[in-house]
Amino acid sequence: MIIHLKDNIGKESAENIAKDISGKLIYDEDKYIIITSSKKNIIPKKYENKVDESFIIESDIQLSSRNYINETRKIKINNIEVGGDSMNTLMITGPCSIENKDQIEKCAKLLKENRLTTLRAGCFKPRTSPYSFQGLGLEGLKMLSDVRDKYGFNIISEVKDTSHVSDVIEYTDIIQIGAKAMYDHGILRETGRQKKPVLLKRGFGSNLQEFVQAAEFILSEGNPNVMLCERGIRTFETKTRFTLDLCGVSFLKEHTNLPIILDTSHAMGYSYGVPDLTRACVAMGIDGLLIESHPDPSKALSDASQQLNFQEFNVMFESLKPICKAVNRNLI
Amino acid sequence: MIIHLKDNIGKESAENIAKDISGKLIYDEDKYIIITSSKKNIIPKKYENKVDESFIIESDIQLSSRNYINETRKIKINNIEVGGDSMNTLMITGPCSIENKDQIEKCAKLLKENRLTTLRAGCFKPRTSPYSFQGLGLEGLKMLSDVRDKYGFNIISEVKDTSHVSDVIEYTDIIQIGAKAMYDHGILRETGRQKKPVLLKRGFGSNLQEFVQAAEFILSEGNPNVMLCERGIRTFETKTRFTLDLCGVSFLKEHTNLPIILDTSHAMGYSYGVPDLTRACVAMGIDGLLIESHPDPSKALSDASQQLNFQEFNVMFESLKPICKAVNRNLI
Amino acid sequence: MIIHLKDNIGKESAENIAKDISGKLIYDEDKYIIITSSKKNIIPKKYENKVDESFIIESDIQLSSRNYINETRKIKINNIEVGGDSMNTLMITGPCSIENKDQIEKCAKLLKENRLTTLRAGCFKPRTSPYSFQGLGLEGLKMLSDVRDKYGFNIISEVKDTSHVSDVIEYTDIIQIGAKAMYDHGILRETGRQKKPVLLKRGFGSNLQEFVQAAEFILSEGNPNVMLCERGIRTFETKTRFTLDLCGVSFLKEHTNLPIILDTSHAMGYSYGVPDLTRACVAMGIDGLLIESHPDPSKALSDASQQLNFQEFNVMFESLKPICKAVNRNLI
Amino acid sequence: MIIHLKDNIGKESAENIAKDISGKLIYDEDKYIIITSSKKNIIPKKYENKVDESFIIESDIQLSSRNYINETRKIKINNIEVGGDSMNTLMITGPCSIENKDQIEKCAKLLKENRLTTLRAGCFKPRTSPYSFQGLGLEGLKMLSDVRDKYGFNIISEVKDTSHVSDVIEYTDIIQIGAKAMYDHGILRETGRQKKPVLLKRGFGSNLQEFVQAAEFILSEGNPNVMLCERGIRTFETKTRFTLDLCGVSFLKEHTNLPIILDTSHAMGYSYGVPDLTRACVAMGIDGLLIESHPDPSKALSDASQQLNFQEFNVMFESLKPICKAVNRNLI
Q1: What pTM was estimated for this model as a whole?
Q2: Is the predicted ipTM greater than 0.85, yes or no?
């Protein structure tokens, strides 16, 4: 149950009520809100006069539910917006990993030429093998930060475990929680206790219920700025790296109020399929895209096979424009 | 290995060579063609002067491979075409099951109003439970055949096991092999020995290799008119009925020469998601769609939750037109 | 609902009632039984005095349910029994495919030496590729039949589509319905209309509900002699051929009344893992095993990697005996 | 490649070589060992005389490979041993979550009565919903530690993210890395830098390659005491909570040198199936079991449906003894 307390209620009083009914208390847009387990659906008599509005929600998908807010949340990322009535589709691109200054500078130029606003690059890489390149870490974050200052981009980078979550929060404009870290309560809690937008990737073995409930962890800590990112699930099919779950995206659009970003690069795993899949995603009317591009993919230190070179990116990008127009979206 | 024999070779000689090298012999467009296991890659010396051209293909995806024919095959369905240079996207629609004359007459009118050409309806239903409605069988096929004669549509209906394959071949214009029958060699063989187009659905537990190899069974019997239909695979996700595998579609477009049809109704299992998914498919530039529609889905005898009513269908259909235009396709 | 009609009811009367309430009529052990959809749970007033007993079952798993018969059915295979109070674990072994007389004669000797009773060998092979060995077909069935006559074994072989189901019924003692044919209504119907035992394999993409409902098709045609065979499901794991679902076996033991046979060879796909997995299955207290063995697996025409050679088989077989004893089972 | 440096080599020299060839250096049993990416397979000439022995391993499963150590590693957990030549099968049991002192005291008595040595109980619970019981945290660890001091048990508890890994390391005898944390490099690194035994659970969406490579992260930090725990993977089957992957266990036994523990409680998700599955696991000859038991499962604050009550546990435990004997294992 979600309970909006009355405006004039004080912090102390709100905290006492939350404690008494075993709920979580958040403060959002000048309002105190308590969320309890969905199993509870009765407000104790003594508190009835403190309550402005309440929402009984059947499952533990509560703050993210369309039964609570019946539209897509609007999220501000510095000077740009996604969701709400913005009709924006945000093209986020850049390399899998930041490798050096020259590489990231080239990527910045790609964005600049296409008037794009948001640069992605991984610094802490959740590699499967301990014997592969593990990313530049904090040094990479600082390089990215420099690029932001120079070009005025927004920067997004991935956190892979709790040990460096505060660094990623400090240096980026959007915090990306990687697929392998989707259940990491340490990360969910830390990113929930601040207000920068969070892009939460679906674990490739996670079902939609778990995915949205991970978002609930962030929301219920008090950060309303969560975006969901579908990036392919693991199935029996091995000709492609993962299986992009667009049926799941339809479900998320119907049942949740969170903006939806699609990562077609990781889903496909091969650059040849990325343009077609990206066109498909755009036609669904989604809020953003996460596409890996690299000045020279064959030399990339990670995910070489799935990154687009700049020419491939540009051709694809042009092809998205008429589709965006057909579905009444602005490609930014 | 695929071997094109010289034009002047006689039937008897072709048969002898095929037998000698354990290959399958087909006769396509006035040419004798022998296909052997992909493990063979040498033509015996004594036959070299009988061979016009040969293709060594690495896997047992041979006749359907882009390494053999580097474009999408053109398939004629009476007066219409898909694949090749046609740039057509064929909208096939109709109810899950034909239930009675009145119902199918209403569906025919929906097609007529939208100038569509191809009507689908199931007669032999591969139901999971023996205690559910099993379809009208042969009687249904005859009703469909009457509708064709009256309106000039092409008719497509499903074969579910070998016992009625000859009936489905006789009464339809496109033979649909259902997902549960994808491995049925009896059906594959019979539909391969005639020339009507075959729409082969991917089994929901079948990987892409097996899917295309099932098509090879038909092609290698001599029927070149095979279309592949992706209709969702079974994954751990249960909020939707199946998971539409568009990564797999990208693979099929890249590696095979067969037209690709998408069935979003079965993939999603819920009508609310069908329009969005269908828009996504169209934006990928595919050859056709298979959409379930019903005059009154709530009363349907099968698949009630996933069929569109006519208004929903019409709204979706209009929305597809600008996307088709954006990707340079004709919606027919 | 399952309805047992009174003993003195005539055939005609039973048929009329079945027709009137849209149920399926079977005649089992001198009793007329009607099964309706599980959605029906009321017997019309006018028939109440014709009914001996009735069972309301919640799902369409009815005749196979423990809510109907609360023990494992006993099935007679000529002179041997499985299920019921027999406490037998039946070891079925033999090659993937029958290849020639010499090979099958050697296999027969393996059985003889170990006092085994049931020989398996495939004749109609559901191969994935049209360019691989497809089995000896009817000729193979006749060879198997000769071996039976010579040694007194029971013979089991697989039917893969409806076109040859009558041949398999004629020549074998147990009819095996292959995993790829689990949904084949033509086969289910034909094997249901006779009384020879049927071993129904679970499709590798089929869930337990569908698996047991396929058995219901056979049972509801009137053949009570159905055994369920788990042989591995398809998952994301590719280091092994399939994933043996022993959790599913626990479910089947708890909820159904059908004997359960385990095929560890196909599940694992590699001979090295077969003995360990077979020991695991035996310790669960199951009704039978289906193990591939071959005089020289490296030369097998199909499934070379997963067949045990005779020495491996013998070592494994000895190791099963103390485990059988520990769980109070007779290995036959 | 794994390189054993000569005994007399100093630390500084070892570090220099490791750095020069981009390898990881560990010190194990008085030996310096360098591990490089498996892509490297040549030792520079200048270092050849510093090398005692080297192992070229094809994949990045290196330290855990049978190609490196061709037997199961022996792991000491205080006074007991698993793996190696011990032939022990370790029964670890206890509740899903520690809830209060009374509950854990009752569990301790169950262990005492059965002469068991190792108590499990969760303190930091990786719950899917933020609105469910999240565990007692550090307070729970301290209670467990008291029980250890009182009874002389070994204690195992789960770490779910990096923020509390040092607490779990401090208070337990075996550190359990939960399935949802399998990819957590922060945890893997911290547990690799100390020597207490680690039980690493397989992520339910993780394949065997990733699972063993996660173990490599720990091993390559210098902790040789890693046990692998299979606890069920996520598949399309929903009648059971997960699917226990015993084919995968066969693979792990064949290809890795790490002891294997089986968790049948989480795999099944329902107590009725746990005894049968546990018997199956024991018959495979594995190194340990992780079974949830609770004084009153119906009142458990988490995983109520899958925990055994004490009577169920005792009945199952007795039944394991003859199977252990049959496969020559000591149940401790």
Answers
A1: 0.96
A2: yes
